[in-house]
Specification:
α1 (38-50) links the parallel β1 and β2. It contains 9 helices and 8 strands. It has helices spanning 38-50, 72-89, 102-110, 127-134, 159-176, 196-205, 226-231, 240-252, 263-276; strands at 17-23, 55-59, 94-98, 115-118, 138-141, 184-187, 216-219, 257-260. The protein starts with 16 loop residues before the first strand and ends with a helix. α2 (72-89) packs parallel to α3 (102-110).
Length: 277
């Protein structure tokens, strides 16, 4: 199993860890991130590690705005062969499974995944038992509503305060169940039931949503629709520059992990920043 514990915190030089996105789906919002063939997905994951990723995040269900849920059987058939294939190729790669389902998480962890990335933050009653049983890292994300309706009309009184309270309550559930706080990562959920102003407030707050210093922080902004609202970029293919701008800011906001589609470009951005610094 990969030695993932150091990988949950920022690098020693202060830069975030890079998590590469491997979407084993036909309908993820960024077309170039879709890998519907197992062999292609495994190759992409290995290439991401070679290009500088610390993690690869394998998901079999799109959670883009308006997306419909898939069956358990479909999600398992997409995710499990890819995780098995990646682990067969490289025993040291840090693998995260992007799922809302406890059964998917359980099978993925049994077959070589190291971490659960749960965008629904324990909505499946069985997820807590899985995480406790495997003593594995977990990332929990804030989402208002469900993918089907989350962007219909999101409203908050104080978005930073409400997300912080949500994270405090959810991480407390994990800790009370026996999860070490150092194995927990939180994600503010940019684009998941948020307007542009909500997204910018959460990004500006940085670690303001993190319940305590032992818990990690992950950002997932890669090529999202916020860059349509912010920069007028219509398609996900035109949003790399904005994405890299946020990545540069993440360094100063003490983000531990940044989840991205474009590993090479993020690795180069951090390398250039480090060289000048």
């Amino acid at each position: 199993m990969a030695d993932w514990r150091p990988m949950l915190n920022r690098r020693e030089d202060g830069f975030p860890r890079i998590m590469g996105v491997v979407n084993v789906t036909p309908d993820s919002f960024h077309t170039d991130s879709r890998y519907v063939d197992t062999e292609q997905a495994v190759f992409a994951a290995i290439r991401m590690i070679e290009d500088g990723a610390d993690w690869v995040d394998v998901g079999g269900e799109s959670t883009r705005p308006g997306a419909k849920s898939v069956t358990l059987e479909d999600e398992l058939s997409r995710v499990i062969p890819v995780i098995e294939g990646i682990r067969k190729e490289n025993s040291d790669i840090c693998i995260s499974v992007d799922t809302r389902r406890a059964e998917v998480a359980r099978q993925a962890l049994e077959l070589g995944a190291d971490m659960v990335n749960d965008v629904s933050a324990l909505s499946d009653p069985g997820m807590l038992d899985v995480v406790v049983g495997f003593e594995c890292p977990i990332c929990i994300m804030h989402m208002q509503g469900l993918p089907e309706n989350m962007q219909d009309d999101p409203k908050y009184g104080d978005v930073v305060d409400e997300v912080r309270s949500y994270m405090s309550e959810t991480t407390s559930r994990l800790v009370e169940a026996g999860v070490d706080p150092s194995l927990i990562v939180v994600d503010p959920g940019v684009g998941f039931g948020k307007t542009l102003d909500h997204n910018l407030a959460l990004l500006s707050s940085g670690r303001g949503i993190v319940p305590n210093k032992q818990i990690g922080l992950m950002w997932g902004v890669s090529r999202k629709s916020m860059f349509h609202d912010l920069l007028g970029r219509e398609t996900s293919g035109d949003r790399l520059a904005g994405t890299l701008g946020i990545a540069a800011v993440s360094v100063h906001k003490e983000v531990d992990i940044i989840r991205v589609h474009d590993v090479t470009e993020h690795s180069d951005t951090f390398a250039a920043m480090k060289a000048v610094r």
